[in-house]
Amino acid sequence: MRARIAFLPIVLLLSVGLVACGGSESSPDTSASENSSSTEQTATSGDADRTVTIQPKGNQMKYKQTEFTVAPGETIKLVFENTATSPSMQHNVVIAKSNTDSVLEKIGQAGTQAGSKNDYVPQEEDLKDKVLAHTPMSQPGETVSVTFTAPEDTGEHGYVCTFPGHWATMQGTMYVKEEGAA
Ligand SMILES: [Cu+2]
Q1: Separation of CA 13 and ligand 1 centre (Å)
Q2: Which CATH number covers residue 127?
Q3: Which of 15, 110, 127, 175 is the most buried (most CB within 10 A)?
Q4: Cα-to-centroid distance, 29 and ligand 1 (Å)
Q5: Other C-beta atoms lying within 10 Å of the C-beta of residue 67
Q6: What is the number of structural domains in the chain?
Q7: 93 lies in some domain
């Protein structure tokens, strides 16, 4: 009798653990979009010269990694792991062809206007032209990626999250530099 009672808490803990593990897998929406975003990239991801992983800073509207460096012409697999837990912390990474505050602001504002149906990515032709690459929008807990070719020219490229309200604080810079250059 005593032994049984002692076991009870362990059994309870085990079942709680199982439920918690199963919980992340049993959300069909998240895993479905995760799969589709990674399948999209499978064709080229094997050939990537460099994989860069970016995460948000907790539940803040900020990137944890606010800069990274690539070499000219490299194939880059940019992975965004949305480690946030707050449901409102949906994020993406939109890399601009330049690094001026005005371009990042325009992309951020146009992204808001583009709305969820466009994944908050600017739709105007002149702004599409200013975007180098972008990941899909990610839900908290989801990982998304995009594979693209770094520009041949060295320089700086700003990146922003275009989820409404995030662009002003959620920014970073991708540097294109020759290997070994300071
Ligand atoms: Cu964001």
Answers
A1: 35
A2: 2.60.40.420
A3: 110
A4: 19
A5: 11
A6: 1
A7: yes
